[in-house]
Amino acid sequence: MSGTFDRTLSSTDVMRRRATLLQRMHIDGLLLLLLLLLATGSLFILYSAGGKNWDMLIKQATSFGIGLAAMLVIAQFEPRFMARWVPLGYLTVVALLVAVEFVGYTAMGATRWINIPGVIRFQPSEFMKIIMPMTIAWYLSTRVLPPGIKHTVISLCLIVVPFVLILKQPDLGTALLVLVSGAFVVFIAGLRWRWVFGAMAALVPIAVGMWYFVLHNYQKQRVLTFLDPESDPLGSGWNIIQSKAAIGSGGVFGKGWLLGTQSHLDFLPESHTDFIIAVLAEEFGLVGVCLLLLVYLLLIARGLIITVQAQTLFGKLLAGALTMTFSVYVFINIGMVSGLLPVVGVPLPFISFGGTSLVTLLAGFGVLMSIHTHRKWIAQV
Amino acid sequence: MSQPIPLKDHEKDAQLVRRRVIVGALVVLMMLAVLIARMYYLQVVQYEHHSTLSENNRVHVQPIPPNRGLIFDRDGRIIADNRPSFSLTVTRERAGDWRKTLDTVVEVLQLSAEERELFEKRVLQGRRPFEPVPIMYELSEEQIARVAVDQFRLPGVEVAAQLVRHYPQGEHFAHSVGYVGRINEAELKQLDSVNYSGTHHIGKTGIEKFYEDSLHGRVGYEEVETNARGRVLRVLKRTDPVPGKDLTLTLDLDLQEAAEAALGGRRGAVVALQPATGEVLAMVSQPSFNPNLFVTGISFKAYGELRDSIDRPLFNRVLRGLYPPGSTIKPMMAVAGLDTGVVTENSKVFDPGFFQLPNVKHKYRNWNRGGDGWVDLELAIARSNDTYFYDMAHKMGIDRMHDYMTRFGIGQRVSLDMFEETAGLMPSRDWKRARYRQAWYPGETVILGIGQGYMQTTPLQLAQATALMATQGKWIRPHLARRIEGELPVDPQPLPDIELRDPRYWDAAINGMEQVMHGARGTARQVGDASLYRIAGKSGTAQVVAIKQGERYDSGKLNERHRDHALFVAFAPVHDPQIAVAVMVENGESGSGVAAPVAKLVMDAWLLDEYGQLKAEYALPLSAEAGRP
Q1: Of A199, B177, B198, B344, whose CB is crowded by the most CB atoms within 10 A?
Q2: Least CB–CB distance from B31: residue in A148, A265, A327
Q3: In A, which residues are within 8 Å of B21 by CB distance?
Q4: Sign of the torsion formed by the C-alpha atoms of B15, B17, B23 and B26
Q5: Helical (H) or strand (E) element with A198
Q6: Element (H or E) spanning B236, and its range?
């Protein structure tokens, strides 16, 4: 940042002279490379996890294409443009969430979808994953940092409204991620440490309160199962016991691609969606898991570098929150499949089968690219 | 903090964010470290545990039951084989609410409530987890189709093909070969649970029970890969089962049928032995039953009928029927009398029609009330003179009599390989003291001389005692197995041969038996006269109800079921005994009149060829014939 640069040159001159083709297309090469790497790996694992189902692969590849396109489109918008429109976006999505509450489409015991028959069916809560950090970043970026009580409270209100709406669907996983993505903005904006720790300390009574007033029976069951999976080995403990067996039996080098018995013999439930890391761990072992985590680490590192190099406060807050939320995704998913955390419906980013989460994630990375490539004096990196 | 004029300081904001990002980066690294540590713990530290778990998930070991050994008669005709049969199995763990599933089965196959009850009992019977339990055997094509159509309503229910025991000869060998039946809970506790892990049936009686170990074979295994729903996907490893050993019996189907025919529908027992080898040629206990009923599980009603029938078809009269041997014991008594020296071949006893102990009024009657006058040993046997044997028994005393009769197998289990043989009873002073806490009375010895009193024998023991006469004391336990997969059966506890002071004593007793059949005053001369070969025989009657002193046996007054049992023992041809027979006809009354013709028919069936002529190999050389009386 404080490096020397030629103030006499206009930005267009710099662009013309030093920006590469990728930069002019508002693409971050490293991010794109890592994402393509993950996409390729994902298809391989999915081929195995889905029982060599080509339809599934084609669907996932298509989702990837759509997601990449969305990412590239989003990357073209300037962060300033996003900041201008985000309040409207926030209100729209909250309105949609309220609409879900009343006219939502119900499947698998949850009301999460807006369904316009024959046209589209989508989850408004997915949009919130991106809108939420944007909104808080927009709100805080124009305030003095670190934010005072008033702005903090307003931010928290902005976070809690969609959180509660999503929680009621019920969709604990998404709700938590939305909560976390907003909270990270507040954190990066310099929320006082004593408040950070205070909030953490408050988690205990909140958790107890949630247990009694918010959590649904199936969610309570998940927590109980997490605490003692062996208590119900054939019922709700089955998933976690089997996924641990799948991971553990992979050993250091794994059983080999397509040779995982746990997933191929249907012992592992949800093997192509939320529990796909177990397939990877079973077939490629500790080595495979570490490689995947390395790719994730590089993605996160790149995101944090983008955060630091962002030139606007809005960009910094947004990039930081998106990156950290992404890492939480990874942690929650792998933590839950390996029995460290209770089971919440969080897919493994870029690997789990599922178009929506893929598109949302790639849109987030589009935002990161936008932040990074719309800087003035772009040539310095 | 709250500055009077809030101004944005971009450099300060940037530093603040940078500090927070560094904290965030540390948190991210920490989370990744936690994940890697967790994975390391699961995949390296607990690898063995999870590997086993996963393998146990996937690999199931399925037992492959061995094929039960076949059973043949002595000529290789099949007596017991295994027939493929379709049975309906239920796996309780996969049936959900299995009682409801049973209801559906009953509904689909249109069965009765009684069968439903039976199914439930079978499902509940001792079993291993995840084992399909057969509840119904011998499904028809139509039933299989019905189950297939409604398969979706019948979780855990499968049609399985398996080999089921079948007895093509039906009733003929029910008492000798026995049958197999479903393993019950008590048996399950005692069995080698590994070896029987795939087996549903076990020998229940007879040869099937006695040679269970040989017939069963050794279980095989199949390691199969199953998916989470228990479906077998492929076989990983297979250890073939070792089939059970085939068994060739000593029994002869033709002779068995002939013996049954000879009984002519009467209740009774026939045993035919080959004296030189101890092989049982025929073993008949009539009435009999169809052993096939028991294999697939007999219905309560059918079983009740068999069990409660007054004719007792389930009762094995040959091995478990106990009868006083009556006069059939006399040849053995004669041998004992000669060997102990209480009589000689020529010593005579005067028979006035009864015997009296010194200073006792009680008269022990001869069957011929008029008396036979002076009687020697040969005539005593031929006429079945009771007085002679009362006298002999009294002189011999219970101790020596017990000793000799025991050596003839009375009161002992004589067979080598027969299940549930009863030992019978040869009384002694010790026995009576233990049983009744009483001293032995001389009168009890006297009546033992004619095979009455406490003495209890099975038809098999009588046949064996007769065979011992034929072989002149050479002991070979009667047995049913001729070859077990080519191997001869081995007697683990052979009995000592009967050695006499003088082997000619045998001839004396045998002469007496021959006179029974062929002598001018022989009791069974009507039968002997018609014979193409020389027979040595002895008749007897076994009392069913006691006759009081001074009363006469009057069959007309007695209930048919209380009439005496007719006994007859014989061997032939005398010069080269090929067959020894014991016949018991329940309530047949007359040994010589009823039982002897049965024995004759059995011996004819064995010794005569299809033209009714004596088989050449059994004929007596002409010169020898001339020398015989």
Answers
A1: B177
A2: A327
A3: 188, 304, 307-308, 320
A4: negative
A5: helix A193-213
A6: strand B232-239
Sign of CA dihedral A170, A175, A177, A180: negative
Pairing label, strands B579-585, B565-572: antiparallel
| Domain assignment of residue A8, yes or no | no
- Domain count for chain A: 1
Q: How far apart, in whole angstroms, are the C-alpha atoms of residue B580 and residue B574?
A: 10
DSSP code string of B506-559: HHHHHHHHHHHHHSTT-TTHHHHHT-SS--EEEEEEE-SSPPPTT----GGGS-
For chain B, what are the domain ranges? 61-246, 253-627
Distance CA B163, CA A274 (A): 47
The 10 Å Cβ neighbour count of residue B127 is 17
Catalytic residue numbers of B read: 327
B175: left (phi over 0), alpha (psi -120 to 50) or beta: alpha
**What Rg, from alpha-carbon coordinates, does chain B have?**
37
Whether A247 contacts chain B with CB within 8 A: yes
CATH code: domain B253-627 is 3.40.710.10
Is A180 contained in some domain? yes
Q: How many Cβ atoms are within 10 Å of A37's Cβ, its own excluded? A: 15
In tens, the pLDDT along A313-328 reads 899 999 999 999 999 9
Whether residue B573 is preceded by a cis peptide bond, meaning omega within 30 degrees of 0, is yes
Question: pLDDT tens for residues B380-421?
Answer: 999 889 999 999 999 999 999 999 999 999 999 999 988 888
Interface of A with B in 300-359 (CB under 8 A): 300-301, 304, 307-308, 313, 316-317, 320, 323-324, 327-328, 330-331, 334-335, 338-340
Strands B78-90, B71-72: parallel, antiparallel or unpaired by DSSP?
Answer: antiparallel
A5 in any annotated domain: no
Amino acid in position B210: F
**Range with the poorest average pLDDT among A188-202, A316-330, B168-182:** A188-202
Both tokens of A331, joined, read: 């942690």
Domain limits for position A283: 17-380
CATH code: domain B61-246 is 3.90.1310.10
Assigned token pair, A259? 């040779």
- The number of C-beta contacts closer than 8 angstroms across A and B is 163
Report the DSSP beta bridge partners of residue B140. none
Residues of A in contact with B13 (CB under 8 A): 145, 313, 316
B536-542 and B565-572 strand pairing: antiparallel
Examine residue A281 and state whether it is found in any structural domain, yes or no: yes
Please tell me the pTM assigned to this model: 0.67
